[in-house]
Amino acid sequence: MIYVDADACPVKAEVERVGTRHKVQMFVVSNGGIRPSQNPLVETVVVPDGPDVADMWIADRAGAGDVVITGDIPLAARCVENGAMVLKHNGEPLTEANIGNVLATRDLMTDMRAADPFRQGGGKPFSKADRSRFLDALERALRAAALKG
To answer: pLDDT tens across 109-123, in order?
Structure first.
């Protein structure tokens, strides 16, 4: 199965296209505002408003053989711990080998922003190269998941 943390996810259409080709059930999880897909393999899950409700829904279900798409690092850590394969929107895999460093970097950046409220910036814009890397990474992840399943 594929679980998509759909709020602010720039690759929902790509997930649906690749997931459909592999005939994989997909759950697109959000707090609302997402147009439901007509694809029978895609289930749109709308969770109640609240902090991390969508994340908890995904983390409670994703496990070995599943692929999770998220930019949320704490959610990714929980899913990796449960045995799921996790991809960021740019195709970067989050694994047991790197999730500790990614979490530490996230926490450091949070502390730096808190210490300097005038600090400007944000993430890099999402590029065509990011989209291409994501498609390639999702294809590889689904092939690997099929081998495990």
So the answer is: 666 667 776 766 666
